[in-house]
Amino acid sequence: MAATMQSKSFTRADETRRFEKGQVELVTLGGVTFGRATLEPGWRWSTCVKPLVGTRSCTAPHLQYHLSGRLHVVMDDGREGEFVAGDVFWCPRATMRGWSATSR
């Protein structure tokens, strides 16, 4: 069977997850889930999401493209990074113990 072209819009996301100071909209195409996160300044994974998921670290792998703002990431091994508009960022599963949005 031939592959079929697919298209979806984040304006009609398959799922929206809301949390303190932010939200993520999810769409799935061809078995791959894409997310669009909107985070307010002052958002922190440790205070806004960790209490909801109950894990020490973020357990999802991330491949991200940053449209705006600044995101600071702290890895379980202590490494840190800061990402801004135009950056592409890859982080493997279960390694991020802290995220924070510092400005838009």
The tally of beta strands, per DSSP, is 8
Identify the strand order in the major beta sheet: 1-2-3
**Could you name the ranges where pLDDT drops below 50 across 5 or more consecutive residues?**
none
- State the major sheet: 3 strands, antiparallel
How far is the N terminus from the C terminus? 45 Å
Considering DSSP H and I runs of 4 or more, what fraction of the residues is helical?
Answer: under 10%
Radius of gyration, whole Å? 15 Å
Q: Roughly what is the average pLDDT, rounded to an integer?
A: 87
What's the overall geometry? globular
Structural class call reads: mainly beta
Strand content: over 45%
Number of helices: 2
The ordered H/E elements are EEEHHEEEEE
Structure, described:
The protein has 104 residues and is mainly β. The chain has a domain at 41-103. The protein is built from 2 helices and 8 strands; from the N terminus they run βββααβββββ. It has helices at 45-48, 50-53, and strands spanning 15-19, 22-29, 32-39, 62-65, 70-75, 80-84, 88-91, 96-103. The strands form 3 sheets. The chain has a 3-stranded antiparallel beta sheet, with no helix packed on it. Strands 6-5-8 form a 3-stranded antiparallel beta sheet, with no helix packed on it. It has a two-stranded antiparallel sheet with strand order 4-7. The longest helix is centred in the middle third of the chain and has 4 residues, at 45-48. The model has no long low-confidence stretch (mean pLDDT 87).
